[in-house]
Amino acid sequence: MPAQPFVAQLNAQIGHEFAASQQYVAIAVHYDAETLPRLAAFFYRQALEERDHALMMIRYLLDADAEVTLGTVEAPRSGFADIVEPVQLALDQEKRVAGQVGALARIARDNDDYASEQFMQWFIKEQVEEIASISDLLTVVGRAKEDPLRAEEFLARESLGDGGEDPGAPPVAGGAL
After folding, report:
1. pTM of structure
2. Domains in the chain and their CATH numbers?
């Protein structure tokens, strides 16, 4: 069974992942309303990915016979001044999550909970990829601030953030259904 401090923090992280998913939906809706379908699609995909991260964490706790608690999620920010602001918010969010994931690995290690530490390794790798992807997108939308269709063209050319399924990813709760 995972160490109790790890379980408590992982339950909190599940809430953070669901909040991130909601924030990405709000960003996607913003871009959809601006008729920027590729930016919208990028963030709709990100929303699903964050939801899946929460479900992976839930599956881990269930498999480890640990308690799962789901808290409330605050409403996401939905108004933005330009095409850059949402991506900056996303990058800030990913950096914050990277810190949270690192702290979870540290809690597991400090409690000699090596199974939980191993579980967190995939998320650490994932955060490196997420930060790189969103950082690249921030550079592009910054350059395309006055001509958002340039950002759309970039996303049409590059498969940014769409690396496909990772066979090494932890299983998702409800994934076998």
Report:
1. 0.91
2. 4-157 (1.20.1260.10)
